[in-house]
Write a structure and sequence with these properties.
The structure holds 2 protein chains of 2 kinds. Chain A is globular. By secondary structure, chain A is mainly beta. Chain A has no helices and 11 strands. Chain B contains no helices and 11 strands. Chain B has strands spanning about 5, 10-15, 20-25, 30-40, 45-50, 55, 60-65, 70-75, 85-90, 100, 105-110. By secondary structure, chain B is mainly β. The chains are: A mainly beta, B mainly beta. The interface between A and B is medium-sized, with 24 and 22 residues.
Amino acid sequence: GAVVSQHPSWVICKSGTSVKIECRSLDFQATTMFWYRQFPKQSLMLMATSNEGSKATYEQGVEKDKFLINHASLTLSTLTVTSAHPEDSSFYICSARDRAEPYSNQPQHFGDGTRLSIL
Amino acid sequence: RKEVEQDPGPFNVPEGATVAFNCTYSNSASQSFFWYRQDCRKEPKLLMSVYSSGNEDGRFTAQLNRASQYISLLIRDSKLSDSATYLCVVNSGNNAGNMLTFGGGTRLMVKP
């Protein structure tokens, strides 16, 4: 079945570092991918919708200059957390929709997530 | 008010018990509804879609009440492996929109 690969799984880095997270759809084309963030004991919160070949759509309260999204191909979206600080430490998850699948069967395929820890 | 609300729990139940989770959503235009399961430090995985007529998948039964904007999940004969956080998820746009809104999750702990 469709798989979404997310890399890296875990990142630990110093404050001020920029971190890039990749999200790939492995066997289907995804014109739209989604980026979520989940803090401990909280639910997934949509950060932005990534659109292939155009600008991402950010949710209210998410800084577009802080969280740079690039969706240059139909199988790859990247999220770059620029100048990361400890408050950016979180679990970042991407997802993608395979339009060949009935929506009720699988509305979105999720990546494994990236655990980001900023020291 | 949150768009999708769930009791965070935790629900601590013995093996073999029946447990029910509830969820309410605020957007009456919501069209698609799902229950996801999330294990600790893992991505959410689709458990089942929820239909107005109610649907069952083995030990799991989901129901939707559009008038009350209420969704439920019933788990019968609980197993240790059912321990996880259960997320109520709603799509408030058309299918092309694909945006999902997640509830805060209900944590279930099944004990021997």
